[in-house]
Amino acid sequence: MPETVSPGEVAHTLTHDHGHERRAELIEIGEAIVLAFVAIATAWSGYQTARWDGRQAELYSISSKNRALATQASTRSGQERLYDNSTFGLWLQAQAQGDTADQKLFERRFRLEYRPAFAAWLKLNPFENPKAPPGPMFMPQYRNAAAVQAAGYNRLANAAFEKGTDARETADAYLRNTVLLATVLFLTALAQKFKLRRVRVGLLVLSGILLVIGLGFVIAYPRA
To answer: What is the pTM (predicted TM-score) of this model?
Structure first.
């Protein structure tokens, strides 16, 4: 005789199957949501990596340009200092020989920004005053615009280089985040291969945790 199935057993079976299908649908929905967020976050991280790489290259280029300008200004400063020292030496020689004509000649050859220091030095009566500085170049009034310019270019070069280094570190951070998001993508895809619901849910939960961490990094990192 055929085995009789009670209506209660049929209802229980249908309810169980329906519940199983519902849970499977929820898992699939969760995986779809994770994949959607991973795709967006990965694209954004890759975009920011490229932008910060470009920013780094731009800043390093600015740093190199300013460094070259600093070198040029420093070279000009050295030449001007040598000129100041040479003309002053010739003036001293003429002064020692009592040749006032040559003294006046070399004074006219002094650079404009050298003359205030020379005048201030003369006021100290340097030939009688042992406390006087050895020459105008040692006076506080002595100025060399090229040296100031070189220092300014060096400061700009250092600042641009430091910002470039920061940009490189930010790009690396976004790149590491891309790797983290790729791990999320791998785990989510791997979860879909399993039939065991517990394993699949476990991998999905792990993917969700890593995704939240990755999204946190995306929010926290600076944007280019």
So the answer is: 0.74
